[in-house]
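Exercise 3.2. Students should predict the tertiary structure of the chain below and write it as structure tokens, then compare their answer with the key that follows.

Predict this chain's 3D structure.
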Amino acid sequence: MTHRIDTVEALETLYGVPNDASTVKEVPRITPEYRAMIEASPFLALATVGPEGLDCSPRGDRTGELVRIADARTLLLPDRRGNNRIDSLRNIVRDPRVALMFLIPGHGNALRVNGRAHLSADPALLGSFAVDGKLPRSVTVVAVESVYFQCARAVIRAGLWDPAARVAPGSLPTPGRILASLSEGQVGGEPYDASWAARAKETMW
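Answer key:
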């Protein structure tokens, strides 16, 4: 363990200081350029923290409907249908700190937003997010504290948008198989996988 880095001073000695481009890009508001990136994104990862630990949850929606920019310092994120674990929401109720990372298909740079959030069940607000007559059960209101883009190196290294990097269908365990394995056959299995498409269609929103 002689090479363990356990102080900030040691870490900064190893890495040095960030360049101007790494710092000037961070601002406490949504600029026109950052607005364009947010509005082009159909997917984000939402990180939250609570007494039990950390959570990072995927959020996806139609392009332009993933979040709503209320103003330069406020984002509105509807909570669409999911598994009802509400890990992220449970955390937000107890600790408002959140981090969001937006990804844009075909675009190398990610966009990161840090802030503090609360949940709203205001009927008018929920109604404004209706899709096919179905409302979210809550909306996460994010007070933006910092916004900045993440350079494309990670996406390029991963080949994230490269069709050649796609995993072949059927090469990974299915959800039904995983559930059956973990529950000794009590949950999941082939029927779970076979009914997924119809189930998803009925419960998407």
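Discussion points: The chain has nine helices and seven strands. Strands lie at 43-50, 53-60, 68-71, 74-78, 97-103, 110-120, 139-150.
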